[in-house]
Design a protein that fits this description.
The chain has 145 residues and is mostly helical. The chain has one domain. The chain has six helices and no strands. Helix 3 runs antiparallel to helix 4. The longest helix has 26 residues. The termini are far apart. The mean pLDDT is 82.
Length: 145
């Protein structure tokens, strides 16, 4: 048995370890389902600066619009945090980070998204998922703002 400095803590918290292991497995399995489902729903021209998409809620009642915006940003933040964790845990970290960023609203978001999607490994993964789902590949023009 290894004599690690935190071994005593681990022996005293077996329930916590089991809970963390279960959360890790559930998160991994959920990412295998949710992330591809979200990736194929990105409009194929989402990254085309000529065709910026307005939110569905833009012309709704302000309370409904702000509630939807808050919920969307909270989900985006959750996915971003999960994606960062999945960089060291099992899961689709980069795809989850991309989906989280797409859901968030912040200055410079569009440039960051375009920069990320142009990264070849992420580009290939996203378009592989889209092809498997029978969707068009994402269009990214070379012109940056």
């Amino acid at each position: 048995m290894l004599n690690l400095p935190f071994a005593g803590f681990l022996r005293g918290h077996e329930g916590l370890l089991i809970l963390l292991g279960a959360v890790s497995v559930v998160t991994f399995l959920a990412s295998l389902i949710v992330v591809p489902w979200l990736v194929v729903r990105i409009p194929h021209d989402y990254f085309d600066p000529e065709k910026r998409h307005l939110t569905v809620w833009a012309h709704r009642h302000p309370v409904l619009r702000w509630t939807a915006l808050l919920a969307k940003n909270l989900l985006g933040l959750l996915l971003l945090c999960m994606g960062l964790a999945m960089l060291v845990l099992p899961g689709q970290g980069l795809l989850t980070i991309l989906i989280g960023l797409i859901l968030l609203n912040f200055p410079g978001k569009y440039r960051l998204e375009r920069r990320l999607i142009k990264w070849e490994p992420l580009w290939r993964s996203v378009n592989w998922l889209r092809r498997r789902a029978g969707r068009r590949e994402l269009v990214v023009h070379e012109r940056d703002e």
